[in-house]
Amino acid sequence: MFDYRRLPVPLIATLAVGLRDNSRVMMAAIDTKVSGEKLLLAAIVDYLAILVWTKTTDGQKNKNKPKSIYEALTGETKADDVVSFDSPEDFERAREKILRGEADGN
Questions:
Q1: Are 75 and 92 within 8 A, CB to CB?
Q2: On the chain, which terminus has fewer CB atoms closer than 10 Å, C or N?
Q3: HEC states along 64-93?
Q4: Is the pLDDT of residue 42 over 90?
């Protein structure tokens, strides 16, 4: 192992530029735990799963949507901010809860 603090900065920069994108040092530099290739593959699988799911009866009824592999790898989650109500009264009750600070999302 080198003591990188004793090496000249241009040499360290040259060594760093030569690293693969999925090396531990480069992944730490861009603050990710998963390589770009794996994220791309996860996104492809997610889109394929959604396409297949839309052709099923569950997809037609918008039930049992497949879990996202991409979101599991990145830790990102998309909030389902679409809320529906069966009647205007249900909407007004939910609105009042939100205004009072008692919102539970449904």
A1: no
A2: N
A3: CCCCCHHHHHHCCCCCCCCCCCCCHHHHHH
A4: yes
